[in-house]
Amino acid sequence: MKKYIFIITAIIISSCNNSKKTDSENQKTVKKELRPFFDSDEIEHYYLNFSDDDFSKLIRKDNKTEKELEFSDLFVGHYPDNIPEDFEKILLKHNYKKSKLNIKQQKNIESVFSEKDLPIPDAAACIAEYRDIFIFKKREKIIGISKICFKCNRFQIIGSKIDVSIFGFPDELDKLKKIVRPENYSILITE
């Protein structure tokens, strides 16, 4: 009987020690420095107010012009797959509007576009409509682009040197949407 009590006590003590190791490992993970996706000194936001009806008409149109094909690839496709130097001009050509972001908003956006210690988010199951595009710059040169569809939580990120596969949690995207899409759109430049 004493042998059984001793064995049970030994098992309990060893399992407690293992649980303490797991707790300390979890704390180490939390303390890990989380890097931003881009080493930028400026973030710009562009927004497109494009109705679902206009989108449907464009998708159904048979003979699209070169400009419509470019827009379609930008709005729902994977364009660009690298960083074009004239990307801002391309956005403006397709009626995207540039937002006025203050320093605090840019810092908040940078924190959203950072590494996370989280599992990979689930994939979305709708056609992306990239109405929001972020441009990350370093010394006035574009170093990164992120296209976001808040409707179905899809994204495309170009130019990051670190893994972005854990980006895109609904909480992150909600935080980002609140930064760039306040109740009133007074931050949008209408030039």
CA distance, first residue to last residue: 86 Å
User: What's the overall geometry?
Assistant: globular
Contiguous runs where pLDDT drops below 50 for at least 5 residues: 15-31, 184-191
Helix-strand pattern? HEHHHEHEEEH
Number of helices: 6
Integer average pLDDT: 79
Strand content: 15-25%
State the strand order across the main sheet.
2-1-3-4-5
Structural class: alpha+beta
Biggest β-sheet strands, sense, barrel: 5 strands, antiparallel
Task: Report the count of strand segments.
Answer: 5
Summarize the structure.
40% of the residues lie in helices and 15% in strands. It is built from 6 helices and 5 strands. The protein has helices at 2-31, 52-60, 66-75, 87-93, 103-112, 170-180; strands spanning 42-47, 97-98, 132-138, 141-149, 154-158.
Which descriptors apply to this entry?
alpha+beta, disordered C terminus
